[in-house]
Write a structure and sequence with these properties.
8 strands; thiamine biosynthesis; about 15% strand; alpha/beta; TIM Barrel; about 210 residues
Length: about 210
Amino acid sequence: MNTDELAGLYLLTPPKIELATFGDKLKSVLDTGAVDCLQLRLKDVSDDDIRKAIDTILPMCNDRDIPLILNDRPDIAKKSGCDGVHVGEEDASYDEARAIMGEEHIVGVSCYDSRHRAMILGDKGADYVAFGAFYPTETKEAKTSVTPEILEIWTTFTTVPCVAIGGITAENVAPIVLAGADFVAVTGGVWNHPDGPEAGAKAIKAAIAATEI
């Protein structure tokens, strides 16, 4: 995951998808050019369903040079050819994930509201740390609530990339970008956009760009 001056859009898939129709919808979103990284985040599905989803989505990402990160499952991520894995506090540990994925793959970690956890895992070699939730979200029940100040403090003391997550939309992304987020992770702000997910992705990317003017 390369960072540049502008924060990147880190798109998460909805936790439940109908693969037969989702593939075309995702392709349209990726074709906007607004997405910098994609996380496949499926909940309460079988391992086989996860593998089938990867088989559909990974070629799309590879064709567009977009990293595909799998949530929770380093074992499936490595065997399926994903670019990396994202783990939370209740998933595989960072050490387990890194041992499975190897140094050449991305391992990102959820750090919620804990700069202490972020510092420990950043020092261990995590490729990015994720803080949140910044805003109320309907995607999942947030364990913690944070303000943009955590990003300001983090970016002052370390160069480990940070991801902001939780209820982010085009309307509220500016303070997070200005605080120093390297990536903004979005689910509902894209998939639930009233004008469709393509419009949602473009709107967030435009809002990010507007903070740099």
